[in-house]
Amino acid sequence: VITDIISNKQTANKLLLHYKDHSSEKFDLRYQADFANLAEYSIGDSGLLYTPNQFLYHQDSIINQVLPELNRVNYQSDAVRNTLGISPE
User: Which residue range(s) make up the domain with 47?
Assistant: First the structure.
């Protein structure tokens, strides 16, 4: 499983599709190139292209902006539990 396509775009080699009927299928992937800031892959010998819905840019600037705010949140507070519908136990 690859969750960081930026660092692993050339090592991704399988696509696992899950269908509504709970069946699944695996397809071979081959990295082709970057196109419009997205990694582009060919799917087996089908002639089809697959482009993951993840842009190829580092998210460090977003993390650096959001993290200080998230660090201020008391995740064990009654307000957060009530908002999320979580009981204190």
Answer: 5-84
